[in-house]
Amino acid sequence: MASSLCCSNPPNLSATSGEGTVVDDFGGIKSYIAGSVASKRAVILISDVYGFEAPNLRKIADKVAACGYFVVVPDFIHGDPFKLDDSTRPFPVWLQSHTTEKGFEEAKPVVAALKEKGASSVGAAGYCWGAKVVTELAKAAEIQAAVLLHPSLVSVDDIRDVKCPIAILGAETDHLSPPELVKQYEEALAEKSEVDYFVKIFPGVAHGWAVRYKADDTTAVQKADEARNDMVEWFNKHLV
Fold first, then answer.
1. Which pTM was predicted?
2. Where in the cell is the protein located (predicted)?
């Protein structure tokens, strides 16, 4: 995960991006929120290593909210996104301060806060680093549906232990979760008759395509939109 592929195309972060609102405390975490808090269906979007100020991520949150969901994008990396050009703090060092285990522990109070506000079902989607956090939530039965987009750090054993419906959206070019590994995820899920699943490998895209696309690249935008639509359809199917 420390390679350039994982962290390529870093976004231009913006604290004011998006149509939603930033709150200082949602389940104990500073978060971007979008949609009606009165919605009974909620979605947590968990960022990659660049955090919750990524404009594309907030656009996705806004569009998911427009489909009738209350959406929360927590700042699980606490204002400390990975900096690709900081040679004094390479990725392995950054990761020591931002483990997915810590992200999972901080995510549980966010789920609890959503339920306290009246959500009857909670889904979670994660990108890269965030996909591992979502996987842990799915293993612990904390959520009712999961979506992993170009995941990293997720093992086949992790997938075997998930306890809720899960969709996995992979890239044709991705050494972190290459198509061969995604196929192994699918085979593991096929053995679990009690868990609904959907697995798709997107041709012609690379790791990060679903959230770190360039807005002026029409093809890249279309592929990212397709991934978002697949995510929403999965939540529509499983969040009631």
1. 0.95
2. Cytoplasm
